[in-house]
Amino acid sequence: MICVFAGSARGVPDSDLALARRVGHALGASGTPVVYGGGSTGCMGALADAALAEGAHVVGVIPRGLFDREELHQGVDVVDVESLHERKQVMLELADAFVVLPGGFGTLDEVGEVLTWAQLGIHGKPTVFVDPDGYWQGLLAWIDTAVARGYIAAPSRDFYTVVADADGVLPAIAGFAPPPAVRGPLSREQT
């Protein structure tokens, strides 16, 4: 199962929605089950609609009270949880890999926690940023700066891959090899 982090905001660029649809189609066409945040709007909704159209099993993990009932995607299997932290824990347990699409603070929080858990050796699963137009370049540049200044261990760059479009997602996941640091917790100085 692939976990996809994406925003649910309305009114986002059509190019972001098209990207989410392409990723949903690619995952669904490959028969890959999807877990995501459960929304029916924005990139979340576009992703789920496309994956479902391809016959994929799609699971939405939703903290109680986060979405109004009409914003929940009605076509997915829903897992209700108590909190955003529990949502991330369930997604980590269900997922074999993580895909990151455009989103806001929630998406940033999700990918930040997944990369932190990888750095600490909690998991050795790949993370793939799908970034055709540089949306995530600011974050990726910050990671490079944090590595250069010693706040993040250099092998942590190998916890993620960046691809230009949906067709690169599955090959990036298939080609992932956890960096050596994932095989055990890093020292306190490296966290």
Structural overview:
The chain starts with a strand and ends in a 17-residue tail after the last helix. With 191 residues, the chain is an alpha/beta fold. Strands 4-3-2-1-5-6-7 form a seven-stranded parallel sheet, sandwiched between helices. The chain has a single domain (2-171), classed as Rossmann fold (3-Layer(aba) Sandwich). The protein has helices spanning 14-29, 42-53, 84-94, 105-119, 137-148, 169-174, and strands at 2-5, 34-36, 58-63, 77-81, 97-100, 127-130, 160-163. Helix 1 runs parallel beside helix 2 (42-53).
Can you give keywords for this protein?
7 strands; disordered C terminus; 6 helices; 16% strand; 191 residues; Rossmann fold
Entry summary:
With 191 residues, this protein is an alpha/beta fold.
